[in-house]
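Ticket closed. Logging final result for Glucokinase.
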Amino acid sequence: VHQYDSAQSVFDLLERQFVIGEDTLVELTQAFLEEFKVGLESYNHPMAMIPTFVTAVPDGTETGTFLALDLGGTNLRVCEVVLNGNKTFNLVQQKYRVSETLKSGEATALFDYLADSVDAFLTTHATTDYTSPTEATSGTPLSDVHLGLTFSFPVEQTALGSGKILTWTKGFSAKNAVGNDVVKLLQDAFDRKHMHVKCVALVNDTVGALLSRAYQAGGCFAGAIFGTGTNGAYMEQVSKIKKLAGNPAWDKGGLMAINTEWGAFNNSRSHLPTTPYDNAIDRLSINPKFQAFEKFISGMYLGEVVRNIIVSLVDATPKSLLFGGKSTAFLNKHYGLDTSFMSATEEAWIGDDSSPDAFVHPPLSVEFKREELNAAVLKKLDNIRTIIAKTLGFKLEDVSLNDAAVIRWICSLVARRAALLSGVAVATVLIQTEQATLKGLEKPARGLNQKLGVGVDGSLIEHYPNFGKILRESLVLLVGEEVEQRVEIGLAKDGSGVGAALCALMALKQG
Ligand code: ADP
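Final structure:
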């Protein structure tokens, strides 16, 4: 609304809004720990700290063949997993699209679609012929195919194989689902179609990442997702899960995986350094005031944060600061800019440069002259111009070198904030499990000299340039370098499928 004095002052303000200092990171970690504590003691807290009834982590020797169904990401996935028992597995999978109509329609329609997808998978992809009428040919009854469901929404679990849906996230809002047992909703859909599939286990994708990484690495204490959404899980001492008192699991003691639902951090109290862009995203989202942390971090929102900033610079007065005041349909559209655009511009900037930090961002308020730029920088900026033109639907000549530099810089600001905050979540888990202390000031009580395995999954951590590196910068500040060095962040390959299979196996063993 206000007129700016100089272009540089606008960029300086943006920087102040998005840069997070060490003190803030420390305060956020303390607030996070407090939320963990409240969540472990009470139900219905935003940081749900959900007991999962997974009481052990695999060691890689597990065997068996299972189906897995994964709902909660961008696609619905059905897979068949064969655990070979030597830390390896074979997996065939098929993705199915979940339409917006299904996401927001009646739950029965959504679950019928899930059952149909499993049915289609069994006839077209499965390596085992589950559909042959063994009953007729051999006299043995047709046995059930065991399926593990990866359901990556907040669920209040009461056993490995049942859990009540607490709320939808990530753009889902199907009616008559919240409050119901998700395993029953799915099983009823299988039964309506007379399918011989039995859903025996329910697992969240974060717990899946934890289990699957443990299987592949022979151990692991936490799992984390940085994809469409963000969430984490870790092995907690049952004695600290005070709200389990009275449950048979409480008396057994030992360890249990907790699904933190950390995407909800900041829902109840405002800790995060929130910008007007974040407020706009929240206000226009389908879940205002919910999943506050997730809106700062995950793939679903980062592109939209960047789009909001770009649009504000296009509209800036007295003179536009981007694209000479022009815009495009993609740029004007809510969620018109995917987070992969940010990755692409940053990749183009880093290029094959062995030391990407060698370039400080160019002086953004000075107009670049082609002939004055270093050849390597010019090439990078031209590559970024091409990406911008293509993705946003501009003509190449409408995108200046300055536009390219400004946009690349905006992407790095927003992504850096996300990665540092992701580090806060991981640091919180390290401190909560007593394997680290805040800022590394004291000797931790546990895990000394051990590798601290974290299984991760999601496009951001997998593909966003330097996301993992910046997350580690945050860890160094928050838990000290000695602990950070021992943290092993490893991709949980096919985490949701393998995790669901492992969970189905545990459920069968428990009877
Ligand atoms: P999901 O979490 O849905 O299982 P992903 O981990 O692939 O699946 O995350 C998808 C999210 O990641 C989308 O929000 C998308 O915008 C974002 N994304 C996709 N590709 C990239 C990329 N190369 N870099 C950063 N983000 C990406």
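Residues 411 and 503 are 38 Å apart (CA to CA). No further action required.
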